[in-house]
Each structure stands twice: as structure tokens, then as C-alpha cells.
Specification:
This protein has about 800 residues and is α/β, with parallel strands linked by helices. It is about 40% helix and about 20% strand. It has 28 helices and 27 strands. Helix 11 runs antiparallel to helix 14 and helix 12 packs across helix 13. The structure holds adenosine-5'-diphosphate and magnesium ion. The site of magnesium ion (MG) has 3 residues, from helix 21.
Length: about 800
């Protein structure tokens, strides 16, 4: 047995743990045991000198899950022949479980996809391919630069990422990465592998022509699933190219800073959380995907808006659709499981229930003024009826224990069940029949373990025994017989339970096979349901929170009337959210500098504008009274270093890296949100950098920029740059107290109110008094830029200098340039 084990072990990569079935246990040996025992919290034992540990097979799923969670890959060797004395049981590695290919749905979050991805570099291009094995979703993309690849990786959050073993140095430091055979990535080989899988002559039909790097990655992912993990991939029927040119690019840092799908304070505080009123897992996953991949194409966005408008115009149909959607479960993943031969009767039953809601949904959707949605929902009347009539009300998860099939579905099964349920009754009836036939009233049918059922007749009646009785045994005053009829019945009664279970299993397999013949239609329908669900959710949100339909333009404008922050608007406790207008015009207000005291609402406001743009470009309605959004190609959102201490590196360095990325990649069509940039270093450095960045964005890039800053000097830019406009967040001073009005007003803030904010925070009174004294001293001598108070008049004075206006000590510094 150990030789068999070693031979198997040799076929596996070193890091894969082998769980080896031994009777009622899965055992692990040698290094595997040492690695696994502490993770599984089971005893590490020794047989002879071999370290080993084991888990009972009936609880194995849970243990496997723990290993996967710990980032391990696990091979399962099952026994494939029945144990016979003196003979080695045959074993086979049936599958290898990995984090990127989990298909036990209880281990997965149904709100998000679980990706296995691969990257590959060919020439200057980086290719990425991505499979969700649970659904069969398969996409690829190609990038001109490594940064964009990294951003997409940050979006998809793959659980497992393959890197060609000959290119490890080209992809350093990627999360969850794993080297894989470089040969599988070679575009010729990979292309052939994909063509064979999809059974096509060319991949051009999938839009892959010329995408060599991406094709290499795609071939490798599939190769890994099929050959190394031994998974069925028959349900992977489609390959989709993600064109980065079609999407609004949002780099990893911006995605984080905007809290699109994740936030430190939980899902409720993300854009996703504020929009997710989806009812199905397909919808939840799709909405996430839409948010991470906003679109640039106006037509597609308008089509989505039209659908939302159609739902809003018919609130009754909207609520009916949502009612139907609530009854639909994860068709997509269920179908995926069934197609891989791994689903059970509960999956079939859930599928049947879900499909039962499709006709009503189609009916409702086709009554909308946008009926095209309905055409992608297939007709499953026959399949639904089949599942309904064949499956028991609440079938068990186990496939071999019976109880899955409904009475009346199979006459043969019904008979077997009747016999096994009513074994005694059958015997009693037969005994009665035999008594009638022979006229022997004392005839008895009995049972013993030696020859099963028999007929016993006392010696007095022996003369009446019919010819078809065969004598088996002679007793003191009776004879025992059997008949073919009796043996036949015995066979039925004794084996009936076993055979009814076996028959149920076969009937189940047949049902599953029938379902899988509808795979394409099921996948298309699941995708359409996801889309309808997202559109319904967006319509519902629009209705609940009074969102409006934004006008989409191919321009550099951004005009929002009474805009609100989509998340705070819904989550703010106590206070009511104060709406604000935004007017960005290419000629005179594309760069807006926003000043105001801490806590006034600067960060909130600039993010609100960015989020409204993102929402408009997923096709959603936006939290405003009205909005005109000139479509953007990229969104950047940067937060000054000291606002973001949670990351490890030198935060100022990170801030500068991220700022460099903006300056190098923003275009005229981009939207840039800068929050306190330059804060992570000394004041003069910081101000100088902020100043230069603002100038560059205004003069060279020409993009739309919102710049929240505490460097009041920056507001001087308005005087020398035509498209710079100053704004501030209104506050009112009252008895040394500060009242936040949350209103954005034209013009620069007159002072920072730092001391008033400190008072709000509860700084001791003597400290506040002392600070006030120091401040007035500083203002008098004007040594620090922030301390320079600006009267309302100074605010509008146009200055001719191209440098920050500064007082003598500062002038010296800037004068050096
Ligand atoms: P700043 O960046 O100016 O320091 P923030 O944008 O962080 O201020 O806002 C501070 C707090 O003020 C927010 O957490 C929010 O609770 C509240 N707030 C901001 N804007 C608004 C608004 N428009 N309406 C209501 N409350 C707001
Ligand atoms: Mg702030």
C-alpha cells in the first residue's frame, strides 16, 4: 500500500497535500501529515516511523475546507475497487481541490465570483484570463502596461493565480500566485487547447484574434483545471474578451479610496452596498462586476437607463418582477455543479423551483416598454414539469439513501417501495393464498437465516402438499418447503430496499443528464436573470432614494443639481444629508479647489461627485435632482498620506507614487479627485507639490479635477488660470463655536477654524486658549502658510504672480526657484 501511495504522491506537485482513503478515514502521511495536523487540529501520530494523521470520511468536507482556507491544495485519492481479503484496494486521485476551483457552494460567498486566473507576458503585452469554475464564466483581457494588469487583478481578487514558471521574475509579489508549466501558456499550444475545448477552428469568433498574451493565459487556466486538477470543464462554453478600451479604468488605489465594493466599515458603506437591492446571487455578482467595470460607451449605458426607466414607469411590474426574482436561487452555480456531475437531488429541486418562476418573470418583463429583456429568458416548461413530477418534495442531499424520487414517477420504483414498506403484509397475503390453494389451514410461512422464507406443513396434512413444493427440511412433526413463487417474493422483499435505492440513484442520474442537455439555455437564462435583477435593483434604489436619470454626453462637462453622496445619503444617522450643486465646465471651472475647515465635508463632497460619475457610467440613476455627465475614461481618487495610515509603506511615498500615476495617465476625459494631496510631508514641500500638480492638471492634462486642500495658498491659482474655480464649505461661527452648514459655496475659505474644530473634539480649555494666543501671534508675523488669514476682500483679489502668495519668510523660499 505504501508503494501505491508513493507512486501516487510522485504524480503530484510537492505542495499538494494528498488525502488518501483508507476504509472510513482519509489519511495523510509524512510531510503532508506534519503540515496538515496543526491546521486541522488533529493528532499527529506515528506508525513505525511514518508520521500520519487522519480524518473520518463523513466529516471530510469540513476538514478539506480548513485546508483550502489555509491556502493549501488538496488531492483526494479514493478507493476504486471493493476491499477483498489479501488484495490491495485500487485507488485513484479523483480530484484536486484548490481555493480557485472550489465547487462546494457552502464554502463560497454567493454574492461574489470565485476566480482562478492566469497571467502571461508576450512581447510588450500582459495577458490575463479568469475562470469562475462554479458558473463557467471565462474571460480574458490584454494590457499594454503592467499597472493596468495590476489594477484588474485588484478588481477580480482571484483566489488562485497561475504564473508561467519561466516568467516568475516578471510578475513579482502577486497575491495567491502559483507557478505553472510554462509550456501550457505558449500561445500556439494554448490556442490549440482552447480550440479543441470549444470545438472550433478558430478563436476569432470569440474576439481573440491577435490577443496572443491573453490566449496564452486562457489556455493555461483551462489546461490547469483539466489536467492538473482533473476537473470537468464541459460547462465552460464561452470565452469573453474584456476590452479595457470599453471600460472606465479605475486603478486599485482609487477603487479603495472610493469604497466601491469594499470598505473598512463594512459593505453597507460601499457604493455596492448602497445599490445592492438584488434578489438573486446572479444579480449580486453582476452588480459587483458592473461597479468594478463601468462603461464608456454611451449606447450601452442608454440602453440600461432605458430599462430602468421602463421599470420606473411601471412600478407594479417592477414589484412583480422582484417578487419572481426572490424565488429564484443560484441557477448559474447549480447548473455548473450539475454539468460537472456533482450536483444532488436538492440542486435539481432548487433548479426546478427557480425555473418555475421564469414564465411569470418573462411575462412581466415582456409587458415593459423594453421587451427585449424577455427574449433571453428561455422556455423551460417541460423541464420544470419533469423536475416537479419526478422529484420528492424535500429530497435529501445523499444520493444513495433513497427518498429523492416522488411516488408515481416510476412504476417499478413504486412496486419496490411497496414491497419493502409492506414486507410482512406480502407474506401474510401469500400465506392466505397458499392456505386457500392447498386447503391446509395450519400452513405457515416462516423465516430462518439458513434458507430464508419457507412453508411449514404439519405431518397430518402432508398428503395435500402440491407438486410445485420442494422439500427443504424435515422436522419432528412437520416438513418445510419452498416454492419458486415464494423465492421470487423473498427476493423482492429482502432486496427491495437496496434495489429501490439503487433504482432511485439511476433515475436521478437520468434526470441530471436531461437537465444538462439544456446547459446552454440555462446559462443564457441565468445571465439574463442576473441582468434583469440588477436593473430592477437599480430601479428600486432610484425609486426609494429619489435618484434621477443622468444625461450622458460626449463632453467635458459635469453638472449636478442637488447631488448627494450615494452612501452617506442612505446611512447618515441623525443628521439629514445636505445636497450640493456641482458645475464643472471645460472653459472656466474644470479644476475646482475646495477649501474649508476640517470636518466641514470636503472629502465627502468630492467623493460624491466621483461616485455620481461612476454610477452614471454603470448605467444607473444618480442621487441628484438632475445631472449631466460628460462621459469619463478614467477616474482617479487620491487621499493625502496622513489620511490613510493603514498601509504599511512610507505613506508619503505611496501618495507620491499614486500621484505620479495620475499625472502619467490622466487624459482630458478623466476625472481626478485629490484629497489633501501633499499632506504627508513638510508644509512647504507639500504645498509646492500640490501647487505643481494642480498646474499640470490644469495646463497639460486638461481633465476635470476636484482638489480638496488645506493649503489656502492654492486658491491663488484662480487668479492666473482660466479654468480654475475656488469653492469652500460653508461654516458659521457663533460664540467661538463652529457650525457646519455642509454647503459648497463659490470662493475660498477665509480661515481654517482649526481651533474651533479642536474645541469640538474636546481639547482642554487652557490648551485652546494658549493655541489661540499663539495663532494671533503667528498671524501677526505671518510665518506659516496656513496661518495666513484671508479677509473676504482678499479672496477675490486677482493676483498676477504665478507663485503662491507668501509673506517674507516664505517668499525667500519660493524665491529660490
Ligand atoms: P472634511 O474632509 O472636510 O474634513 P468630511 O468630508 O470628512 O470632512 O466630512 C465630515 C463628516 O461630515 C462626514 O463624516 C459626514 O458625517 C458629515 N457630512 C459631510 N458632508 C455632509 C453633507 N453634505 N450633509 C450632511 N453631513 C455631511
Ligand atoms: Mg477630509
Amino acid at each position: 500500500m505504501m508503494a501505491q501511495y508513493q507512486a501516487m504522491r510522485r504524480t503530484l506537485p510537492a505542495d499538494v497535500l494528498l488525502m488518501y482513503r483508507l476504509g472510513d478515514f482519509y489519511e495523510m502521511f509524512f510531510e503532508d501529515a506534519k503540515v496538515a495536523a496543526p491546521i486541522l487540529n488533529v493528532a499527529l501520530t506515528k506508525r513505525h516511523t511514518t508520521p500520519m494523521c487522519g480524518v473520518p470520511y463523513h466529516a471530510a468536507e469540513g476538514y478539506m475546507a480548513r485546508l483550502l482556507k489555509a491556502g493549501k491544495r488538496v488531492a483526494i485519492a479514493e478507493q476504486t475497487s471493493d476491499p477483498k481479503p489479501g488484495k490491495l484496494v485500487e485507488r485513484e486521485i479523483t480530484r484536486i481541490l484548490t481555493a480557485g476551483s472550489i465547487d462546494n457552494l457552502s464554502l463560497l460567498d454567493d454574492q461574489r465570483p470565485n476566480y482562478l486566473a492566469a497571467v502571461f507576458r508576450q512581447g510588450k503585452k500582459s495577458g490575463l484570463a479568469c475562470v469562475d469554475h462554479t458558473t463557467g464564466e471565462f474571460t480574458l483581457a490584454e494590457f499594454d502596461d503592467g499597472g493596468q494588469l495590476a489594477d484588474e487583478l485588484a478588481r477580480i481578487q482571484a483566489s488562485e493565480l497561475l504564473i508561467p514558471d519561466h516568467q516568475l521574475s516578471e510578475f513579482p509579489g502577486l497575491a495567491n500566485s502559483l507557478p505553472y508549466d510554462g509550456y501550457a501558456f505558449l500561445p500556439d499550444h494554448a490556442g490549440q487547447f482552447l480550440r479543441d475545448h470549444f470545438n472550433v477552428h478558430s478563436l476569432d469568433g470569440y474576439g481573440c484574434s491577435g490577443l496572443h498574451a491573453a490566449t496564452g493565459a486562457a489556455g493555461a487556466v483551462l489546461h490547469y483545471l483539466i489536467h492538473q486538477l482533473r476537473r470537468s470543464c464541459d460547462h465552460i462554453r464561452n470565452l469573453r474578451v474584456r476590452e479595457s478600451a470599453c471600460h472606465v479604468l479605475i486603478d486599485a488605489a482609487s477603487q479603495r479610496n472610493l469604497d466601491l465594493v469594499e470598505s473598512r466599515s463594512g459593505k453597507a458603506h460601499t457604493l455596492l452596498g448602497s445599490l445592492d437591492r438584488t434578489a438573486t446571487p446572479m444579480g449580486a455578482r453582476l452588480l459587483r462586476d458592473w461597479i468594478l467595470h463601468p462603461l464608456r460607451e454611451r449606447e450601452t449605458l442608454m440602453a440600461r437607463q432605458d430599462c430602468i426607466a421602463a421599470f420606473l414607469a411601471e412600478p407594479y411590474l417592477l414589484s412583480k418582477c422582484r417578487e419572481s426574482l426572490k424565488g429564484i436561487r443560484d441557477i448559474e452555480r447549480t447548473t455548473g455543479r450539475l454539468a460537472q456531475g456533482s450536483g444532488n437531488a436538492r440542486d435539481l429541486s432548487a433548479l426546478g423551483v427557480s425555473l418555475g418562476h421564469v414564465p411569470a418573470l418573462r411575462e412581466d418583463v415582456s409587458n415593459l416598454s423594453q421587451p427585449q429583456l424577455a427574449s433571453r429568458l428561455h422556455d423551460f416548461t417541460d423541464l420544470t414539469r419533469l423536475l416537479e413530477t419526478a422529484l420528492a418534495e424535500e429530497p435529501p442531499a445523499n444520493l444513495k439513501e433513497g427518498g429523492m424520487i416522488r411516488d408515481g414517477w416510476s412504476p417499478e420504483l413504486d412496486e419496490l417501495r411497496a414491497i419493502s414498506r409492506d414486507g410482512k403484509g406480502f407474506i401474510a397475503r401469500m400465506q392466505e393464498e397458499e392456505r386457500q390453494r392447498t386447503g391446509i389451514d395450519s400452513l405457515k410461512i416462516k423465516f430462518n437465516n439458513v434458507f430464508g422464507y419457507f412453508i411449514e406443513i404439519t405431518t397430518t396434512h402432508l398428503a395435500k402438499v402440491p407438486d410445485d413444493y420442494t422439500r427443504k427440511q424435515t422436522m419432528a412433526n412437520a416438513e418445510r418447503y419452498i416454492t419458486p413463487g415464494l423465492k421470487d417474493m423473498e427476493h423482492k422483499v429482502l432486496g427491495s430496499e437496496e434495489r429501490s435505492k439503487q433504482l432511485e440513484y439511476e433515475l436521478f442520474l437520468d434526470l441530471r443528464k436531461q437537465v444538462v442537455t439544456h446547459l446552454d439555455a440555462l446559462q443564457q437564462t441565468a445571465a439574463a436573470i442576473g441582468e434583469i435583477d440588477v436593473l430592477c435593483a437599480l430601479a428600486e434604489t432610484a425609486q426609494l432614494h429619489r435618484h434621477c436619470r443622468p444625461v450622458l454626453e460626449e463632453s467635458g462637462r459635469l453638472v449636478i443639481v442637488n447631488g448627494r453622496h450615494p452612501v452617506l445619503d442612505q446611512t447618515l444617522q441623525g443628521e439629514k444629508f445636505v445636497p450640493n450643486d456641482t458645475t464643472m465646465e471645460p472653459e472656466d471651472s474644470r479644476l475646482q479647489i475646495l477649501t474649508g475647515p476640517n470636518m466641514a465635508g470636503k472629502s465627502t463632497y468630492i467623493r460624491q461627485v466621483a461616485l455620481i460619475a461612476v454610477m452614471a457610467q454603470i448605467g444607473a440613476y444618480v442621487p441628484a435632482e438632475s445631472a449631466v455627465v460628460g462621459l469619463v475614461d478614467r477616474v482617479f481618487c487620491r487621499v493625502g498620506a496622513s489620511d490613510d495610515l493603514s498601509r504599511g509603506q512610507s505613506t508619503f511615498m505611496v501618495e507620491m507614487n499614486e500621484t505620479a500615476l495620475i499625472l502619467n495617465h490622466a487624459t482630458e476625459r478623466s476625472l481626478v479627485i485629490l484629497d489633501e494631496i501633499g499632506r504627508g510631508t513638510a508644509t512647504f514641500d507639500g504645498l509646492s507639490i500640490a501647487w505643481a500638480v494642480a498646474e499640470h492638471l490644469h495646463d497639460i492634462t486638461g481633465c476635470r479635477t476636484l482638489f480638496a486642500t488645506h493649503y489656502h495658498e492654492l486658491t491663488d491659482l484662480e487668479a492666473t488660470r482660466p479654468a480654475v474655480a475656488n469653492f469652500n464649505v460653508a461654516v458659521r461661527e457663533w460664540n467661538d463655536e463652529i457650525i457646519f452648514l455642509r454647503k459648497i459655496l463659490p470662493g475660498a475659505a477665509d480661515k481654517s477654524y482649526g481651533i474651533q474644530v479642536a474645541r469640538l473634539a474636546g481639547l482642554p480649555k487652557p490648551v485652546l486658549e494658549r493655541a489661540k494666543a499663539i495663532l494671533s501671534h503667528l498671524e501677526l508675523h505671518s510665518v506659516k502658510p496656513e496661518a495666513k488669514a484671508r479677509g473676504p476682500k482678499a479672496k477675490n483679489t486677482r493676483q498676477t504672480t504665478d507663485m503662491p502668495s507668501a509673506n517674507p519668510p516664505q517668499m525667500d523660499l519660493f524665491g529660490q526657484f
